Amino acid sequence: MSVSDTGARRRRRWLTAGLAVVSSTAAVIALSVVPAFAVHDTGAFELDGNAVNGPAPGDDWDNVCHQVTGSDCSTTSNTNGATAVDWVSEPNVNASIFTTGGSKDPQDINNWAWKDGAGGLPAKDNLLHSFAARYSLPSSATCPSGTAARCEVLYFGSDRLDNSGDAQQGFWFFQNKISLVGSSSGTFSGLHKNGDLLVVSDFSVGGTTSTITVFEWNTACTKTGDVVGGKTCGDANLLTLASSDNANCATAAAGDQFCGLVNANTITMPWSFTDKTGTPNNQALNGEFYEGGVNLSTLGLADRCFQSVASETRSSTSTTATLKDFILGGFGGCNTTVHTTPTDANGNPVPAGGFSIGTGSVNVADQATVSVTGISTWSGSVQFSLCGPPATDCTSGGTPIGSVPIDNTTAQPISSPTATVTSVGTYCWRGDFTPSAASLAAGVQPGTDGSPTECFTVNPVPTALATSAGAGPVQLGNPITDTATLTGTAHEPGTPVINPTTPGGPAGGTITFTAFGPNNCSTAVFSTTVPVSGDGTYGPVSFTPTAVGTYHWAATYSGDPPNTNGSSHNGNCSDTGEDVTVTTTTSAASQQNWLPNDTATVASVGGVPLNGTLSAQLYTGDNCGATSGSAVSGQLYTKTLTNAASPASLTTSNTSFTVTSSASTSWLVTFTSTDSNVGGSSHCESTSLTITN
């Protein structure tokens, strides 16, 4: 016995990489007649009495061996599309065997027991290798009755230590995972499930007589002879599906449901093989190698997924036969993979760099591809969910977007319903495949994909801000103005962000207007902000300069995260359209003024020399204060005359008393003589001025 999927028994697998093998060209063809290649002659797999690929089309056991072990099995090729494979080696001929009376096919697996030490096990019942493969093929070639969309075919086989005696073998295909409990002896874990498949083969008389019976585990069978669904129970829990005593693949007619054969001559195995006689060069004598095939679809078993497979040797073909040696391996089961790909609403790839939020929303979708191996007919549904923002994956949770039914006939990929997102950020899709009740019962597993590769980005929109200053030049003392036009904003996120029931409002934020100057772009002399509500024209704002010169307007929109970016205009004062010149004017005018001055002269008759004082006093009015006016303070000028020649004069030097409007002034000139022979005199001189300013 050997196990391919149990840790305690993993040491028993044969994985020798340096194995000496013999080319398939050296193998001796086992059959003396033209062989039949696979059940229904599909060409997918060779049932030709040897384990080496060729010359007929199709895989062989060397391909299965290579696919499982990854090492040389006289080939470098894996199978051509097998949906499940099993290849297990039991190089220790004394390895575990069935034990106790409960280890019989009608008993459930929890009644089976095993132990190490072959003891008295006949060499002909000692298995060395066990193998199996499953294919899903077009029904037109393999299921002419049209019983399924595709045809599920099983192939299986083993080789044994000795050929001295007839061989009775069974092959169990379990839907549940079956493994061993214990290290050198113990029980089995796992139970039968209705629909498990048992193929019992008897090859006697050197393999010329072949009998194959196919059973299904069915708990409705309580004893031999019960009839369940029109078929007869071969024993408790075993429903007989079909049986034939002419099931040799070499002679079977086309269209048979199952067949098997043994090698009729010595063949060379593609892996390490030494029989009881020690035959060299990996050669198996006639009857030491067995292989067979079953068409699951024509037997009504195409909907079964098998996770484990066991080959067994038996004391006879009877359902109550004592079970002897076995090899247990894993078989894959119904493996489900889901791959999702984010798209736009029309199924196109996400643009490089992600989506734009546009005017405040963007429609997105997801595409899912569901693959189920190990079964041809299945159904279920894919539930799409969207996570974020923000999200780095969508392994759980998210917003349900919708469920889409799918089965094995559905054209793929399938698209999700459209989702509307109203906020920037990173979103991630998830697709959850849930099998239908029937598919789940058949072993189809759920599948999901919410990995980081299913994420996409929604980006904010850029905005444009254009400004327009009021016309200039502007006279000093008057205001200058600026107006801004904002475009490209997006609405705020809705509630909720994904598929909102309440739409988001127009973008908010503020526009800040700044005036720089005069005659520079570094001194801000005015700043004000106005609130924003979406696209539109804002302003005008105004400012009254206090100095002449050129002023520069600039404007900045703060933006409204997360959907709308900010923008600015004329931050470097390069837009001459945002310049306004402030000027002032002058007026020509005159302010006339008059400084009254006089020259006083005194003369004597006969030219007598003059002695005394000559004076001049300025008066307002025209009569030297006689009736009006008064003497102007500080405007008295005097000159002393000593023997002065006649005539003598005095000139005033007024620089402080100014006449600025129409008026009359007068000067009183007086000579006071100190000479008794010369008399004094006085004189009043007036001036009338008309001044227009």
Low-pLDDT regions? 1-38
Biggest beta sheet attributes: 8 strands, antiparallel
Overall strand count: 44
Distance between the termini: 135 Å
Number of domains: 4
Please tell me what the overall shape is.
rod-shaped
Number of helices in the DSSP assignment: 3
Going by helix content, strand content and strand pairing, the class is mainly beta
Mean pLDDT across all amino acids: 89
Rounded radius of gyration (Å): 58 Å
Strand sequence of the main sheet, in spatial order? 11-12-13-10-9-6-18-19
Helix coverage percent: under 10%
- What is the percentage of strand-forming residues? 35-45%
Question: What would your notes on this structure say?
Answer:
The structure is a single chain. The protein is mostly beta strands and 693 residues long. The protein has three helices and 44 strands. An eight-stranded antiparallel beta sheet has the order 11-12-13-10-9-6-18-19, with no helix packed on it. Strands 21, 23, 24, 27, 28 and 29 form a six-stranded mixed beta sheet that branches. β12 and β13 form a beta hairpin. The model is unreliable at 1-38 (pLDDT under 50).
